[in-house]
Amino acid sequence: MVDEHASTSTVPAVEAIIEGIAREAGKLALRYFHSLADLPVENKGHLDLVTRADREVEDLLIAQLREAFPEDGILGEENGETVGTSGRIWVIDPIDGTFNYVRGSQNWAVSIGLFEDQRPSFGVIHAPARDITLVGGKNVPTLLNGQPVKPLPALDMSRASTGFSFHPSVATADRLEALRFISDDLGIMFRHCGAATLSMVEVALGETDGYVSLGDATWDVMAALPILRNLGVSATINWDTVDLQSKLRFACGSEEFLSKVRPLIDRMSIAA
Asked: What predicted TM-score, i.e. pTM, was given to this entire model?
């Protein structure tokens, strides 16, 4: 990834700037996390929560991104879209896994992804409660806490596992069919951690072989997908037809993993 805004000799590269912004946002989120008893929680929908922390962290992200990249657009979960002139859009989730966050679970993260040329191209995931920072994308190697990450291991169906999530609005029949397919047709284990970014971190770390989602938003996955692409992970999303406000039904993993789950994704996409 090339920093087109400044010379490399005097100004940090884009990836360093974004990682710094993510870390600042993580510090703010972590302060609220350590005083949850005093944090007001609102309902956006059934099992869909938002807090003052979400809003203040997103405000921080937007302010710092606008300062660093004034010509770029920004799309946030809470504040909607700020239109830019460059054609690039920073897609942000201030706290992915708010439900986990308010329950005291460490499975939440700040997510900042870059969407350019109609594709996710770069991302930073910062999970401060777990001391995890993943960075990577086009021309930027994937690093975990500053260290290279190994490519995915080969799929071994005798010990295979997938992450799995669904939005609360997804029909019960679709949820049950997805679980039946994973358990019966594939005969593999599944995990549900309640945050897309952390589910995809599990893929990056080799803890699961892939991830199946029914209803993630683009801001849930925009940072993770380019990070994972460097590790040999593909996704079934057709970005040429996706609106950035869309709910997504997709899988990601190695090509071998995707060949196993594609029948489910094809059926679920038709049902969406």
From this structure: 0.91
Q: Please, what's the b/e burial string for 45-67 (b: 16 or more CB within 10 A of its CB; e: otherwise)?
A: eeeebbbebbbbbbbbbbebbbe
Q: How many residues does this entry show for the chain?
A: 272
pLDDT per residue as tens digits for the range 86-138: 999 999 999 999 999 999 999 999 999 999 999 999 999 999 999 999 999 99
Q: Give the C-alpha separation, 79 to 201, whole Å.
A: 25
Strands 210-217 and 132-137: unpaired
- Among 99, 12, 18, 96, CA closest to 61: 18
239: which residues sit within 8 A by CB, 6+ positions away?
118, 119, 120
Residue 264, classified by CB atoms within 10 Å of its CB into exposed (0-12), middle (13-18) or buried (19+), is: buried
What is the secondary structure of 48-61 as a DSSP string?
EEEEHHHHHHHHHH
Which amino acid is it at 268? M
Rounded to whole angstroms, what are the CA distances from 73 to 82, 98, 147, 160, 165?
A: 5, 24, 30, 39, 28
**Tokens encoding 155:** 């799929």
